[in-house]
Amino acid sequence: MPENEETGETVEESQETDTAQEAEVTDEEPFDRTRAEAKIKKANSEAKALRDRLKALEPLAKKAQELEDAQKSEQERLNEQLTAAQERAAKAVRAAVASKVEALASKEFADPEDAAGALDLTAYVDEDGVIDTDAIRADLADLLKRKPHWARPDEGPRAPRPDRAQGSSGNGNRSPSEPGDVFDAFMKGALSRGR
To answer: pLDDT by residue for the chain (195 residues), tens digit each?
Structure first.
């Protein structure tokens, strides 16, 4: 490439000197056709040499561009894969932290998902991916202070549940509920009356 730069400078310098000489010639001497044709021929041959060099270098430049594009495509593909892997890892970490928060909140919160939604889940994971449960517990306690309506209601003493076996039907005067038993009682009653 330095040759081209030198050649380009040489062409520019020769054109500048030719222009300067032409200016001097036009002021002092009359137009000389042979000298003008020689200058044009020289400029054309230099331009042809430059075009030939350009044609020789074009395939190399094209190949270099293709290699650069291939590398760029490979880098872009690898960058996309890296970004996708990082996103999957971040989702997995968020899911793990959310599960831990919900598990710790299940004892005190009516809806543990509220607690997971209200806290910044990324704040509980260190660089090694370890979840800080103590920080979660502290933030859950603080969250319950700020939002007491999210707390699980006190169940208190349990109210008694009714037992159907107790009461008036529990003394043995209970009518049978099976159709066969009902029919049997009916038949016994009918037979005892008919005797």
So the answer is: 444 444 444 445 555 555 555 555 445 678 888 888 898 999 999 999 999 999 999 999 999 888 887 777 778 888 888 999 999 988 988 888 888 888 888 888 888 888 888 888 888 888 888 888 899 999 999 999 998 888 888 776 667 777 766 655 544 555 556 788 888 888 888 888 865
For residues 110, 112, 138, 134, the Cα torsion angle rounded to the nearest 10 degrees is: 140
**How far is 113 from 116, CA to CA, in rounded Å?**
5
Residue 176 backbone phi and psi in degrees, to 5: -65, 145
Handedness of CA 127, 130, 131, 135 (dihedral sign): negative
pTM exceeds 0.85: no
**Cβ atoms of 160 and 140 closer than 8 Å:** no
